[in-house]
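Exam revision sheet. Question 4 asks you to relate a sequence to its structure. Input first:
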Amino acid sequence: MASKKNLKELSASQIDLSSRIFDLVIGRVLKGAYSGFDEKTKKEMDETFLSDNDKEKEKFIKKNIPNFKKLFEEEAKKIEEKIKAEIEQKI
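Answer key, structure tokens:
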């Protein structure tokens, strides 16, 4: 994953790809958390994430997914390993 420092050195297509991978990782973490929630929390999450209120989304994550950062890092590592393996197969 590219760090903020390295983004200045990337092309537009590389930045787009990094953004798409970032969104994929977040989506997988949220999907995994959602599947473990009770119906009340699922409804709360649906309402929160359908809104444009980023502060409420952040608040929801802090409250209901306190280990979000760890889960994000683990999922990013999995995707990175899959990409590397696929690249190695093609070389």
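Marking note for examiners. The longest helix spans residues 12-36.
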